[in-house]
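QA checklist item 7 of 12: single-chain prediction sanity check.
[x] sequence parsed
[x] length recorded as 345
[x] structure emitted
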Amino acid sequence: MKAFKLIGIRQMEMMDVPAPEIAGDDDVLIRMRAVGVCGSDVHYYGTGRIGSQVVDYPFTVGHEGAGEVIEVGAGVSVVKPGDSVAIDPAWVCGECDQCLAGRPHTCRNLRYLGCPKQMEGCLSELIVMPSSCCLLLPDSVSYEEAAISEPLSIGIYAVERSVPMRGAKVGILGVGPIGLSVLMPAGVQGAEVYVTDKIDGRIALARVAGAVWGGNPDNGDVVTDVLGRETGGLDVVFECCGEQDALDQAVDMLKPGGKLMLIGIPPSAERVTFKIDELRRKEICIQNVRRQNGCAQKAVEQIASRSFDVNIMITHRFTFGQTGEAFDLVAQYGDGVLKAMILFD
């Protein structure tokens, strides 16, 4: 089969590789139909690493995927050949202390699609996953929407870990795909959402998705603007861009007793800092968000419910053979790209 592999910094190549086969009773062989390009994929493409996770070349990235079931192991009953599935990229052991404590997203033996030292990604024609990672799609959900269920599940999980949304005053700093994946479930639960981004087109899209206000920190004082509208400060801020300036703005925007949700991955820094005096005086609670935890099925169900439209995230589409072009575009924030989707024949 064909697979796209990273072969160096900002270098990708389509390669012929052995096709995966059913090896266990719980295995599911999937023909890929759609893969979304994630910011973390682009980190690996542009720098070869995210923190301690370093790529050994050649390596296949990709973890936002959906496809068609081709074959199943003898013990699989949840899906059958011909079914359409969204792929939960986290393959967990179910036996370690984290799994038993209800934290499979921090499984001690986690294998995650497209994560170095764990598992090759889904930018290939075929993959094998356990049946527990295969989410049966209703006929109303497309492959593209199913691929978006992965970032959406992170947003749903982040909202669940924050504060009650009804009537909440919420900030989202960075409204790329993850920021929008927070905005949509927060909005339908009754939050009043303020957003910031350095790309005006993303602010405009967030307004379409339900944000009540948007500002560009390169063009003005977003903290003053937000606090001019919410004089007591915000209940919760989701930092979704991984930028030091955004962390400082988040602390300034929060009310005393507010909550800061850290979702964004810093592009290069290994450490971040906080204004400790203000953090302490306000007694700000800081919550990291690690991927998604039990929210993959919820994401598929929310897409199917049509309470919001995830399709507005998809701005560009590429064939599998154009994968390198897709990564270049996303890495450069070119042509107003938000979510690039790679489609297979």
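[x] summary fact logged: The radius of gyration is 20 Å.
[ ] second reviewer sign-off
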